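Repro case for the chain-ordering regression, as requested:
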Amino acid sequence: MSAGTGRPAARVLGREAAAAAGAELTFVFEGRPLVAREGDSVAAALIANGVDVFGRSSKYHRPRGYRCGRGHCSSCAMRVDGLPGVRTCVTPVRAGMTVEREHAWPSAERDVLRTAELLSPLMPPGFYYRRFRRSPRLWGLFERGLARVAGQGDMPSPEAVERLGAARCARRAVDVLVVGGGAAGMSASLAAADAGAQVLLVTRGDRLGGGLADDVPPGPALAADLAARTARAGRLEVLTMSDAVAWYEEGTVAVDRSPDLLLVDPSTVVLATGGYDAGLPFPNWDLPGVMAATAARRLGSRHRVPPGSRAVVVTSDDGAYGVALQLLEWGVEVACVADFRESGGEEGVAATAGVPPHPVADRDVLVDLAGHGVDLLTGLGKLVGHGSTRVRSVTLTPRDLPGRARRRPRSYACDTICYSNGMRPADDLAYQALASGSLVLSAPGDVTTGAAVTGDAVTGAAVPGGASPGGASPTGAAREEGGPGPRRPGLRLAGLVAGATSAQDAVAQGEAAGREAAEHALRS
Amino acid sequence: MSPRVIPGAVTGELPAAADAVVIGGGLQGLALAYELAKCGCGRIVVLEAHYPGSGGSGRNGEMIRSAFATDEWIGLFDDSLRRWQTLSAELDFNVLFTRAGYLLLASTPEAFAGARRNLEIQRAHGLGVELLGPDDVKRLCPEMAPEMIAGGIVQHDAGFAHHDATVWAYARAAARLGVELHPYTTVTAIGIAGDAVRSVTTDRGVISTPVVVDAAGGQAREVAGLAGVDVPVQVFRLEAMVTEPLEPFLRPAVSSPAIMGYCHQTTRGEFVGGTEPEVPIPCDSIRSTLDGARDMARKFVRLFPRLAGVRMMRHWSGVVTQTADIAPILCRAPGLEGFYLDCGWVYGFVGAPAAAALMAELIVTGETPPTLAPFDVDRFTTGKLIRETSLVVAASEGSAA
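-- result from build under test --
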C-alpha cells in the first residue's frame, strides 16, 4: 500500500465499537481530502486511510511510520496546519486540518534521496569526524550538500505564525501539581484533594486513563472508575492535552497547551509520568508497520483502527500476550508471538493441551492464542524485518539451547510487528528539577535510577528543598544530590515511573504520593 | 560516563610526578596540554573534576570570529581563527568547522556607524570582512525581520564548529602525544615551597610538579585560591537552546547586540543560540531558568519571526568567568613561580587554539609572546584594561564593555 487513499477506512467492527466511534469529519492530507472520525489522532486517521509512510529519516531518508503512539518519539512528526514537527500520534484530527509529510523529495512515498543509503559504507555513524578532516575545502563542499538533505520540516508558515500571535501564557499557583493522567496520577490527585490540597492534574492525553484505559479487562473499567471519581472530586482540576515539558530553576513547571502555555508554580509535584517503551533494535526495526505493542493497543482500543492485517508479536514480557489477544479481537491475524525468554526452568509451565512449555504462567491466554492458530515461540534469539515502505515479513531465529535440538529460523509474512521489551521510567522532569547530581529512587521493586549514584544508598522519602519526612515510603522517593537551589517544590513519584509493575501498585503508590504531597504542600 | 569510554582518558593511577599539571579538562586545558606535548614538555597530566568538556566547553554557542574592535582582541583571536581553518587536519579529527561566515548584525543607525568604524581596524589587520548594507543583510539572511536590520559586518572566513568534537579532537590528539588525562579527579590543594609550586594534591593522590596551569573555567578562582593567587573574575550563568531540526534557512553565524544574542543553524538543521539578560547577576548555577527560556524565545522570534511555533528541543546553562574587561587572563601568575593562569574566558571556544599555543610557548620559553602580553592579570592592578567594544556580552557593573 503506498498511496494514501487506496484502502477504505478500516475500522474495528462491533456494536460497542460503532458506538464509541465519533462523528465523521474531513481533513486534508497533502491536498487530498480524507475522512476521519472525531476523537482520532491524526496518525490513527492516516492509518485508517491506508497511509504507511509518515516521513523520512534524516540521513538515509528511510521511510518512517507510526511507532510509539504516545508522543515520545519523532517518527510520526508531520507538518500540521503550517507548523513543522507536530507529533501526529498525540494530535487530535480536526475538520479542515491540513497535514503534510516532511523531509522528502519529491514525496515521502517515493523519496529519491533514499538512494543515500547506497553510500552507507562511506557513511558509518560519526563518519564526518573522520572523513574530510584533511581537506577543509572538501568538507566545506560536503557540508553544504549535507545541509540540503538534513533538516526536517520547513519553518512555520506565515499563517501559522499569525495564528500563534493569539497564543496566551497564563500563570497560576497550586498546592499539588500531578503530572500524568494514568492510574497513579488519578489516584494521587484524588488522595491529595481528599487531604485538603488544591490539586491540578495535567495530562498529555486527550482524556484521562493513561495506558490502563487501553489495557485488557479489568483495566478499562478501573480506569473509567478512577476517571469518573476524578471528574467529580472537589479541589481537583484536570487539564487534558497539557504536556508538562519543563521544570525550571524558579520552581515553575511549563505546561505546553499548544498553542498556549501554562506556567504552574506548585508547592509539590507528583510525577506519575509512566514510562517509555524501551524499544527493540533489529535489522529494519525502523520500517513502517513496526511499532510498540502499546502503540498498536492504542490504535485498536482507543481509535478502533487495526494497526495492520497480519501481525507478529515479539516480546520479553507477559504484557504483550494481552495485546496479541486484543489484535485477534480487532480482526488482525496474529501469526506468531515470539518470546525472548526461555520456556523451561521451574518458572516455566509444562506442556499441556497442545501448548508447549512456556514462560507465561497464564495457561488460559496461551490456550486461547493457540486456539486461534497463533504460533508460540520461546527462546527467540534474533529477528530480521523485511520490506521496503512497510514491513512485509519477519525472520525469527531461535536461540540454540544446550541439550536441545537446533531449531531452524522461521519466516512469517506480516505487515505489522509489535514489540514489547520493557519500559524505562519517564523521569525527565525529575532530573530537570534536580539539575545536577543523581536521582536515586528506592521503591517497591528495587528500582534505581540515575547513571552515577554518588551518595549513600537512599531508603527513605525525601523532598528536595523541603522538609524530609524520612523513613521508608511506599512511593518512589526521590532525593537530590546536587547543591541547593532557589525555591524548590517538593517531589514525589508514583506509578510506572517509580517502578510500579501493576495497576494495583500504581494506585497504591499514587494514593500514598498524593497524601504525602498534600501534607508537604499544606505544611509549606 | 565511564572513564573507559572517554576519548583520550587514562584509567590508571595518578603518577607521582609530572613535568606539568594542567587543572581543567575543558577545551583550554586539553588544547594547552596538546600544545605542551607538541613542544616535548615531558610528562603532562590533565586533571578534570568531571568529564572532559563538562563545563563551558560543551555548553557554549560554538561561534567563531576574529572581527573585533581592538588590536589586542584581533591579535589573539585572528591567530586562533587561522588555526581553526586547519584544525581538523592538525588534530586528525573533523571538528566540523563550518566557514559559513559570521555576521555581526547592526540593528540601529548608531550600531551601523560603530560597525563602520570597526571596519577600519579590522581591515588594517587584514581580516576578510565586508560592510553590508541593509539589502545585503536581507539577501544573506532572508528570514531575518527587516526592522532588525540596519546593516552589519560579515567576516567571510569565520563561522562555527562543533564544540564536543573539538573537545574530543584535542583530547585524542593530546593522548596520542602521551598526555595523561584523568577525569573525575578533584584538586584539593596546591603545594608551594618558597615562591614556587611543587605539587598538586587531589582526591586520588599527590603529583609533584614544577608547572601548574589553572585552566579550571568556572572554578578558576577557587583553584587559584588554593595557590594563594587572586583571579579577579565573576561567574555568570549563560543559557542556550537548540530547536528541532529545520530546513536550512540561515547560513552564517549571527550575533546581535540589539537582542544580546548569538545563533547559528547547524548542518543538521538545528537552530542553536543563546541570549543574555541586560543586567547579569553573578550566579554559578547551571540550572536552566524560565526567564532564560522566555528571553531566548522572545528575542529569537523577534529576530526570525518564522521561528514562532518551532519547538525548543533542549535548553541548557553554563557559566562564564568574566573579568572586568571581559578579556581572558593568560599569563604567569604574579609572585608564584611555575603557576600559570589560562582563565577568565567568555570567548573561550574561539580563542582556545591560539591561547593554548601561545601559553605553551610562554611556559616552555619563559618569554611572553607579544600577542599574549595585553592579557596579563596585572592589567587589573595597573588599570590597563582592554577597551573592546564589539562584544555581545552583558557587562557587569563597572566593566569596560
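Ordering looks correct now. The first strand of chain A starts at residue 24 and ends at 29.
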